[in-house]
Design a protein that fits this description.
Its EC number is 2.1.1.100. The chain contains 12 helices and no strands. By secondary structure, it is mostly helical.
C-alpha cells in the first residue's frame, strides 16, 4: 500500500473538499449576509460551483482536469444531499441521503485506488462512467422515486425503511473498502488476464470470510440504495440485475485466478465461500475433459513470465470463445477499458454439464 498519497489522489482530495465547500457558501450566506431565502442560498452555492469549475479548467492541464472536475462534482453532490436532507419536504429527505451516499461511494472508489494501487489509477477509477446499464439503472431509480413521491408521498416518509437502507449501504461500502485496503496492490477495477510478478493470492482478513468481499459489499450497497429511496420496483430489479452481473463477473474472474494460482486457488475455493447468495463461482471438475486440460496446461507452463502471461490469456479467451459458441453471450454492463479485453457470460466448459451446476 502506498504510504504517501500520490499526486492524483491529493488533487482529487483537494477538489473534493473544494466541492464540499459549497455547503459553507450556503450557510455563510445566512451567517454573514443574513440571507434567509433558501433559493438565494442555493443560487449562491451554484455560482460558487460554476466559479470553481472555471478555476479548475484554467488551472489544470486536460489530464488533471478530468480528475479535478469529477472530484469537485462529487463533493458538491455530497453537500447538496446534506442540504436536501435538512431543508426539503419530508418525502424528499431520503433522496438527500441517497445523493450523499452515492457521492461518498464514487469518490472513495477513486481515493481507495489512489491509496492501494496508484499505478492503475485513472479518471475511470471514479466509476462514474461505469456503463450505459449502470446509468440507466440510476435514472430508473430516480424516476420511480419522484413518481412515487408525487402520487404516494407517504411511501417515502418511513424513517425505519431508509435508516435500514443507510445502514446496509454503509456496511456494504465499509466491507468493499476494507477489501480494497486488504488486497492493496492486488486490487483493480479491471479483471486482469495477465499475471504480473507482484500478483499474489490474498486469503487473509476479509478474504478469509468470502472470496469476493468487494463484490459482496457492492452488491449489498446497491440494493441498500433502493431501500434508502423506498423504491420497491427498483429494489427487485437491482437485486436481480446485481446478482446476475456478479454471477457472470465472478465466473470470468475465477477462471483467470485458476490460471494464475492453480491448485492453491482450488483449495481456497474449498475453504471459503463466494459470499454472495447462490453463487459458487467457477468450479474445477476433474471429470470434465476441457477443465482437465485447462489445469494440465497450467501445470505445464514455463517459468518465463511473458510466455506464462500469453498462455494465461490464450486459455481464458479460448474458454470464452467456446462458451460463446454454445450460448448467447450476456451483456452484463461491466467496466470497459481500452487496454483490457473482457468477457461477460457463463463459463460452462463441459458439454454434458448443465449451467445450473456451476452456480
Amino acid at each position: 500500500m502506498a504510504t504517501v498519497l500520490c499526486y492524483e489522489g491529493r488533487l482529487s482530495l483537494y477538489c473534493f473538499l473544494g466541492g464540499m465547500a459549497s455547503l459553507l457558501v450556503f450557510y455563510g450566506a445566512q451567517a454573514f449576509l443574513h440571507e434567509e431565502s433558501i433559493w438565494t442560498k442555493v443560487a449562491l452555492s451554484v455560482g460558487y460551483y460554476i466559479s470553481l469549475n472555471v478555476i479548475i479548467r484554467i488551472r489544470y492541464n486536460p489530464r488533471d482536469y478530468q480528475i479535478a472536475v469529477r472530484a469537485a462534482f462529487l463533493g458538491t453532490v455530497l453537500s447538496a444531499g446534506i442540504v436536501v436532507f435538512l431543508y426539503a419536504q419530508e418525502q424528499y429527505k431520503s433522496f438527500g441521503i441517497y445523493a450523499t451516499l452515492m457521492a461518498l461511494f464514487h469518490y472513495t472508489e477513486y481515493l481507495g485506488i489512489a491509496i492501494c494501487n496508484p499505478k492503475t489509477l485513472s479518471p475511470d477509477s471514479f466509476i462514474l462512467n461505469h456503463s450505459i446499464h449502470y446509468g440507466l439503472a440510476a435514472a430508473a431509480s430516480w424516476i420511480e422515486y419522484f413518481v412515487e413521491s408525487y402520487y404516494f408521498p407517504e411511501m417515502k416518509t418511513y424513517k425505519l425503511v431508509w435508516v435500514a437502507g443507510v445502514l446496509l449501504c454503509l456496511a456494504g461500502e465499509s466491507l468493499r473498502k476494507v477489501a480494497m485496503i486488504t488486497a492493496s496492490k492486488n486490487f483493480s477495477h479491471i479483471v486482469q488476464f495477465e499475471r504480473h510478478n507482484e500478483h499474489e493470492l490474498v486469503t487473509h482478513g476479509v478474504y478469509g470470510w468470502t472470496r469476493h468481499p468487494s463484490y459482496v459489499g457492492w452488491f449489498y450497497w446497491s440494493i441498500g440504495t433502493q431501500i434508502t429511496l423506498a423504491n420497491p420496483v427498483c429494489f427487485v430489479i437491482y437485486a436481480i440485475a446485481s446478482w446476475k452481473f456478479f454471477h457472470d463477473r465472478i465466473l470470468m474472474e475465477e477462471i483467470t485466478l485458476l490460471n494464475f494460482f492453480g491448485e492453491e486457488y482450488i483449495q481456497y475455493q474449498e475453504r471459503v465461500p463466494s459470499g454472495l447468495p447462490f453463487i459458487r463461482g467457477f468450479r474445477h471438475d476433474p471429470d470434465c475433459e476441457d477443465q482437465t486440460s485447462f489445469h494440465t496446461d497450467k501445470r505445464n507452463e514455463t517459468d518465463d513470465d511473458d510466455d506464462a502471461a500469453d498462455n494465461n490469456e490464450r486459455i481464458v479467451l479460448e474458454i470464452a470463445k467456446a462458451d460463446v459458441d454454445r450460448r448467447r453471450s450476456i451483456a452484463s454492463g461491466g467496466l470497459e477499458h481500452s487496454r483490457n479485453r473482457r468477457y461477460s457470460g457463463t463459463y460452462d466448459n463441459c458439454d454434458d454439464q448443465d449451467a445450473s451446476s456451476l452456480v
